[in-house]
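A common beginner's mistake is to predict each chain separately and then try to dock the pieces by hand. The better habit, illustrated here, is to supply every component at once so that their relative placement is modeled jointly.
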Amino acid sequence: MLAGGVGAARFLRGLVQRADERRVRVIVNTGDDEEFYGLHVSPDVDTIIYTLAGLANPTHGWGLRNETFNTLAALERFYGRAWFALGDRDLATHIYRTQRIRDGIPLSRVTAEIAARLGVKAGVIPMSDNRVRTFVKLRGRPDALPFQEYLVHRRARGAIERIELRGIEAATPVPAAIEAIESSAAIILAPSNPFVSLGPILGLAPIREALRAAKNRVAAVSPIVGGRTIKGPADKMMRGLGHEVSPLGVARLYADCVGLFVLDNADRRHIASIESLGMRAIATDTIMTTPARAARLAGIVMTALAV
Ligand code: FO1
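With all components supplied together, the output reads:
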């Protein structure tokens, strides 16, 4: 599976009820990674790991459940008001990750260590060990903003002019990501933001090429339902960047590398136009309000891919 954060984690929670978790591999976006308080934060990687470990915060989707924020409050004495909340126990993950990276261990290996310590059986593979940083250029502002600054600090306000994936040209995928695509019977693009969650993963040329070669085994689930996103700013981004805010608009972005497009029943009318892009399209209930609904959706996607 190719994954961003919370939307992808919801789907994954269903997938591991329908597939043996030990055979699942998740290629995760790292364009959102940022440094706070000298610590390497990898939000999408942690969201996936915490979800699979059954430790994720059920309200937010990110961070840990039953978390406390005493250290953050103490840090505010030195740094001023904290707009990015790292919980007390979440800090342990960040201290470990940062120390290992400082010791020269690649992010992919550190991620595997963290996942294993938390009892995760699936393979969690950050897309690259090289630094790729997502920036958002807003209309009327001279400089592009680092992604977390845009999403969390400014609450995704402002009209989007451009997304920059800094470092993408020089970055190479983690070899295990390519191997996973080449050897998997089914590859699923999660219902994540096509620009800032899946965009960085698909922006790595060898990953996109591997997906193109596997097109008949690749499915994508639409993050747009009835003209909007369930969570996050994907709809605003599509509009701002001049794309149609519909499953068809998303399918156009994936036309070269996706063989099956899964959209919500509410958007059935787009099936024919999506199929004219050269992929199959099926409509079903894609709203994952419960783990059982996520499992049902995962089952439908896998059956349609003939797994
Ligand atoms: N999102 C927020 O809206 N506010 C936060 O304070 C916040 C803290 C945070 C800490 C660790 C982590 O792994 C994720 C965190 N997120 C927070 C979520 C995250 O920044 C975004 O949801 C993703 O980057 C988007 O995929």
